[in-house]
Amino acid sequence: MSDLKEKIIQTSLELFDQQGFHGVTVNQIVQASNTSKGGFYHHFQSKDELLFVIHDTFITYVLKEAHAANVIHTSPIPKVQAIIQAFVQVFDLYKPHISVFYQESLYLKPAYEEKIKGKRDEFKRMIFHVIKEGQEEGYFRKELPVEITGMAILGMVNWIYKWYKREGSYTINQIAEVFTDLVLHFLLPGRVDEDYLNHMLKVPFFYESE
To answer: Which CATH number do you get for residue 104?
Structure first.
């Protein structure tokens, strides 16, 4: 990525965060990044494409890391460790991008939204696949439904956005270690008390209507 393109992105991240997507014009981005309209349109067709690139950057990163984990590791255990580590790290590496994503994602044009959704769905499928792979090979608990387990992991990690602060008590590496530990503890087999398991099987899923 060129220095100018990165400068435009970083400048727009600050402006979008402060004023919202619709509160910022291309002229403001051009002026704040000390470039020209020609420089802006050389890298982005429109402000809408710029918003897409901001969204796409961190999703592409975590997807790339997940693919790399799948290639590098043969066992599902280090695979899921690497995927969780990269997934957590993204909330620090691309914190401004993610902040703008949650604030402004509704303004993505349908064509761009479809591309983002495609990558998010691909990442979700990769999470599901490694869980299923671990179950089939005897590494992970087979009684856990793949879809619920995968969505629990995605939801747990995504919530980092709400509370993570770079100046907080824990570094992103420490948080990644804790999250990896939590995920492995509920994935890896352990002795289950039969009375407790029988009790839980009788508990209704969510709430039954009276």
So the answer is: 1.10.357.10
Tokens of 164: 């993570």
pLDDT one-digit tens code per residue, 40-69: 999 999 999 999 999 999 999 999 999 999
This prediction has a pTM of 0.81
* CA separation for the pair 87, 81 (Å, rounded): 10
Cβ proximity of 131 and 146 under 8 Å: yes
* Residue 209 included in any domain: no
Find where tokens 């209704």 sit: 204
Q: Is residue 75 classed as helix, strand or coil in its secondary structure?
A: coil
CB-based contacts of 99: which residues, under 8 Å, 6+ apart? Answer: 13, 17, 161
Query: What one-character-per-residue DSSP string does 31-71 give?
Result: HHTT--HHHHHHH-SSHHHHHHHHHHHHHHHHHHHHHHHHH
pLDDT at position 100: 87
Q: Which two tokens stand for residue 169?
A: 């008590």
**Tokens of residue 96, six digits:** 């401004």
Q: Are residues 25 and 57 in the same domain?
A: no
CA atoms within 13 A on the CB side of 190: 7
Instruction: Write phi, then psi, for 141 (nearest 5 degrees).
Output: -60, 125
Q: How far apart are CA 138 and CA 64, in angstroms?
A: 27
Half-sphere exposure of 60 (CA within 13 A, CB side): 8
